[in-house]
Amino acid sequence: MSFIKKHIIKFLFGILHSEAYKKYKQQQNNSWAKTNFKVFGKQSALPETFWIKNPQYISIGDNFSSLFNLRLEAWDNFYGKSFQPEIHIGNNVNFNSDVHIGAIDKINIGNNVLMASRIYISDHNHGNISAEDLGIVPAERPLSSKGPVIIEDNVWIGEGVCILPGVTIGENSIIGANSVVNKSFPKNSVIAGIPAKLIKTLEK
Fold it and tell me: Which residues contact residue 65 at a Cβ distance below 8 angstroms, ignoring those fewer than 6 apart?
């Protein structure tokens, strides 16, 4: 019996890791996206593994691609408080793995943006540093936004970057690995650090 089970498991493993199954799974994901997203552009593709909350508030342009574990969250309600979230991703945007984007207000990612892995972008805070919020268990503290996150065209975001609420990153900028970005920077900026600081300004 164990011999038969071993070969059944091997057979199923082969199917799940075959190119034909991956292609089928990709088609299923893209069909779901076209039906559920506000906009899902031409030649765009979701990864094999993803977690999407409220896709009706999310727009994705043409030629989007992402590696595994994509997480997009548009929160329209949290413990009785309502929001009007919007996530917009432009054309020719490429994510590596484990990109997490969460919105209760607005996050706008421009065209030709490239992101490495393990990136977190949020337009809101989960609770505030106040006596009132400290009296609430962390998981139930209210969400609040300091403003939208805007990432303009042609931005390159390095590994492990965290971008916080109310931040605008100007076009053609580069963000160094593991940076925490808590303020805005103009176009052509090279920034890095915790918190991120201007390293140099690029010149064409």
Answer: 44, 45, 93, 94, 95
Contacts of range 183-191, beta carbons closer than 8 Å, 24 or more positions apart: 187/152
List active site positions: 126
Residue 16 in this model has a pLDDT that exceeds 60? no
Question: 167's torsion region: left (phi>0), alpha (psi -120 to 50) or beta?
Answer: beta
Alpha-carbon distance 125 to 141, whole Å?
9
**CA-CA distance, 59 to 155, in Å (whole number)?**
19
Hey, what amino acid is at 171? E
Assess contact for 181 and 197: CB atoms under 8 A: no
Query: Nearest-CA neighbor of 123 among 181, 46, 56?
Result: 181
What DSSP string runs through 18-65? SHHHHHHHHHHHHHHHHHHSSEE-TT----SSEEEE-GGGEEE-TT-E
Query: Where is 72: in which H helix or E strand?
Result: strand 70-74
Cβ neighbours, 10 Å, residue 110: 20
Q: What is the pLDDT of residues 78-116, one digit of tens each?
A: 998 999 999 999 999 999 999 999 999 999 999 999 999
141, 132 in Cβ contact below 8 A? no
134 pLDDT band, cuts 50/70/90, is confident
Summary mean pLDDT of the chain: 90
What's the pTM?
0.86
